[in-house]
Amino acid sequence: MMERDYILRVIQEFFKLINGLLGKLNEDNADEIHKQLQEVYSAYFDRSCQFFYRLSCDEMITLIDNDDQFRHVEKVEMLSELLYRDGLFTSNDVLRKDLLCKALALIERIEKQSKSFSVERNDRKVGILAMLN
């Protein structure tokens, strides 16, 4: 139970940080906010954004299947959200598509593992698919 409470606190802090960064966004500071968003990878997943950028979708799935830090579906949701937000921020079209594909792959994996349906997750999936087409 304590571990579950800890995970919930980490998730709350994560989304508070992400939403706080995006709440400060304007044209003048977009690059700085994006840089801070990229630093979240190291803070929450102990790996740089470049590590995740280099992985293929299949390698990403293998990572979450084998890395103990992703044994809780909530941690996978956090990574999916970070990849999604990072993809929206990047000006590189190739990287944007890659990050959105990875976020989508993780959402699909979460759907397989999760015991409950999430309207929010489904909406995110539909939105990503629309952006990729």
Written description of the protein model:
By secondary structure, this protein is an all-alpha fold. It has one domain. The protein is 80% helix and 0% strand. It has helices at residues 2-23, 30-45, 49-54, 57-66, 73-89, 93-113, 119-132. The N and C termini lie far apart (42 Å).
Keywords:
133 residues, mainly alpha, 0% strand
- What about the largest sheet? none
How far apart the termini lie comes to 42 Å
**What characteristic shape results from the CA principal axes?**
globular
Tally the beta strands.
0
Runs with pLDDT <50, length 5+?
Answer: none
How many whole angstroms does the radius of gyration measure? 14 Å
Give the SSE order as H and E letters.
HHHHHHH
User: How many H/I helices?
Assistant: 7
Structural class by secondary-structure content:
mainly alpha
- Please indicate the percent range of residues in DSSP E strands (runs of 2 or more): under 5%
Overall pLDDT confidence: 91
How many domains?
1
Helix content: over 70%
Short summary of the structure?
The chain has 133 residues and is mainly alpha-helical. It has helices at residues 2-23, 30-45, 49-54, 57-66, 73-89, 93-113, 119-132.
